[in-house]
């Protein structure tokens, strides 16, 4: 299995390439990041890419799974910059995943818009718009918007999983 980890040097992504390198069923891992690490791991390659501007398709061809962990919470004073990565960039990851015919997408949302509601206990559908959570950081709102585009970009025949807090 070939796995592409988008955001592989970020807050969440730093542990995943190492964990995947130790899995018997994972033959290779591509860690995709804006900043390349000075780290060598068995069966792990690194490539530089910015999800809001760079061509992602060549990185996704031949992958069995794309794990999307890239997002920004800084600069919090610049909502447009956050939107470019967290919404536009995420949409580009979803579309490139579908275009490359990657069978699985794992997307970690910092806002968890797809989860049982706190008041009702009912689950929120990925296709239904979600309200922005009360957030302590401005980065959460644009990330939440990216979550709502996942199902339409990946298509009905793609397996995807949205993971979030709480």
Report the radius of gyration as a whole number of Å: 15 Å
Instruction: Record the strand order, biggest sheet.
Output: 3-2-1-4-5-6
Mean pLDDT: 77
The structure class reads alpha/beta
Distance between the termini: 30 Å
- How many domains in all? 1
Bulk shape: globular
Strand content: 15-25%
Helix amount, in percent? 25-40%
CATH topology: Rossmann fold
CATH superfamily: NAD(P)-binding Rossmann-like Domain
Q: Low-confidence parts, pLDDT < 50 over ≥5 residues?
A: 125-152
Q: What CATH architecture would you give?
A: 3-Layer(aba) Sandwich
Task: Give me the count of strands.
Answer: 6
The succession of helices and strands, N to C, reads EHEEHEHEHHE
CATH class: Alpha Beta
Give the count of helical stretches: 5
Largest sheet: 6 strands, parallel
Defining key terms:
Rossmann fold, 166 residues, 6-stranded parallel sheet, 5 helices, alpha/beta, 6 strands, 27% helix
3D structure, described in words:
- By secondary structure, this protein is of the alpha/beta class.
- It has a single domain (2-164), classed as Rossmann fold.
- It is built from five helices and six strands.
- It has helices spanning 16-21, 57-60, 79-99, 140-147, 150-154; strands at residues 2-6, 28-33, 44-48, 65-68, 104-109, 159-164.
- It has a six-stranded parallel β-sheet with strand order 3-2-1-4-5-6.
- β1 (2-6), α1 (16-21) and β2 (28-33) form a beta-alpha-beta unit.
- The protein is globular, with a radius of gyration of 15 Å.
- It starts with a strand and ends with a strand.
């Amino acid at each position: 299995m070939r796995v592409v980890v988008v955001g592989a040097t970020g807050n969440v992504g730093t542990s995943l390439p190492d964990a995947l390198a130790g899995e018997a069923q994972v033959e290779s891992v591509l860690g995709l990041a804006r900043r390349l690490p000075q780290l060598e791991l068995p069966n792990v390659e690194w490539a530089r890419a910015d999800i809001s501007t760079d061509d992602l398709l060549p990185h996704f061809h031949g992958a069995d799974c794309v794990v999307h962990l890239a997002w920004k919470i800084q600069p919090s004073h610049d909502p447009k910059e956050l939107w470019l990565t967290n919404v536009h960039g995420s949409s580009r990851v979803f579309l490139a995943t579908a275009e490359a015919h990657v069978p699985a997408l794992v997307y970690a949302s910092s806002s968890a818009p797809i989860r049982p509601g706190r008041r009702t206990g009912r689950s929120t559908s990925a296709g239904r718009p979600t309200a922005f959570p009360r957030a302590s950081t401005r980065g959460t709102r644009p990330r939440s918007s990216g979550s709502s585009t996942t199902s339409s970009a990946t298509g009905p025949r793609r397996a995807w999983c949205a993971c979030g807090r709480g």
